[in-house]
């Protein structure tokens, strides 16, 4: 496995940064891939670039695909037409699929990562999906990832010709947010470079009130460590 190439989907958030650190710790040379899909919180793309550099990826690529044309999500809609939910309890966050769900986003992102991996002759793809401390997204479930891995090995020239077998790695899938933070700190992740917020202000400060911020803050509270990012209330 040492020195094998992996494509790592990197959003600029806490989970994907930890996933990149894990891939590097496992001996992979990482090509990071971020997707500019028209997300309202575009500051995360700059965070992804910084995280990629800090954790030693050999290449960082950004692909633009505008999912605002599809619509259906508070993350791609204008604030005046569809607001990001705020101040929900952890019980509310854990119920149902919220309007921050971007239709088929992980299918799209993994499809792009698969395409990129094939051009690099890489057969390992890492994604920071989590099925425990998350907002109910259906494309973060283990059964989805298993089926996508199956699709990858049916739909690509390199797999069909027997050059290799694609593997989808989701090392955070069964970890709590606190466990993820502890693992990242052990691996030297600078969480001050990351941004998890769905609705940061123009200065890039996290709101502290959206589902993603609340899950992140809960994780740091459980570890007994202060979150190093700036919040609007700071």
Give a written overview of the molecule.
The protein is α/β, with parallel strands linked by helices. It has helices at residues 14-25, 43-54, 90-93, 105-120, 142-155, 157-160, 177-186, 211-223; strands at 5-9, 29-36, 59-64, 124-126, 167-169. It has one domain (5-223): HUPs (Rossmann fold). It contains eight helices and five strands. Helix 1 (14-25) packs across helix 7 (177-186) and helix 7 (177-186) crosses helix 8. The longest helix is centred in the middle third of the chain and has 16 residues, at 105-120. It starts with a strand and ends in an 11-residue tail after the last helix. The mean pLDDT is 89.
Quick structural overview:
The chain is an alpha/beta fold and 234 residues long. It has 8 helices and 5 strands, in the order E-H-E-H-E-H-H-E-H-H-E-H-H. It has a 5-stranded parallel beta sheet, sandwiched between helices.
């Amino acid at each position: 496995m040492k020195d094998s190439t992996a494509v790592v989907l990197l959003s600029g958030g806490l989970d994907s940064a930890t996933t990149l650190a894990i891939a590097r710790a496992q001996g992979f040379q990482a090509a990071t891939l971020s997707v500019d899909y028209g997300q309202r919180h575009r500051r995360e793309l700059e965070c992804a670039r910084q995280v990629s550099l800090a954790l030693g990826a050999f290449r960082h690529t950004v692909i633009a695909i505008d999912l605002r044309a599809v619509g259906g999500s508070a993350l791609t809609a204008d604030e005046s037409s569809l607001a990001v939910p705020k101040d929900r309890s952890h019980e509310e966050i854990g119920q149902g699929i919220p309007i921050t769900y971007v239709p088929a986003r992980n299918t799209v992102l993994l499809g792009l990562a698969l395409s990129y991996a094939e051009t690099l002759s890489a057969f390992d793809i890492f994604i920071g999906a989590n099925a425990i401390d998350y907002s109910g997204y259906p494309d973060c479930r283990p059964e989805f990832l298993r089926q996508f891995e199956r699709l990858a090995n049916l739909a690509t020239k390199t797999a069909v010709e027997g050059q290799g077998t694609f593997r989808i790695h989701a090392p955070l899938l069964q970890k709590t947010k606190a466990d993820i933070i502890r693992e990242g700190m052990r691996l030297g992740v600078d969480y001050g470079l990351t941004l998890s917020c769905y609705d940061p202000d123009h200065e890039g400060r996290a709101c502290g009130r959206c589902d993603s911020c609340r899950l992140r803050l809960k994780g740091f509270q459980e570890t007994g460590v202060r979150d190093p990012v700036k919040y609007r209330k700071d």
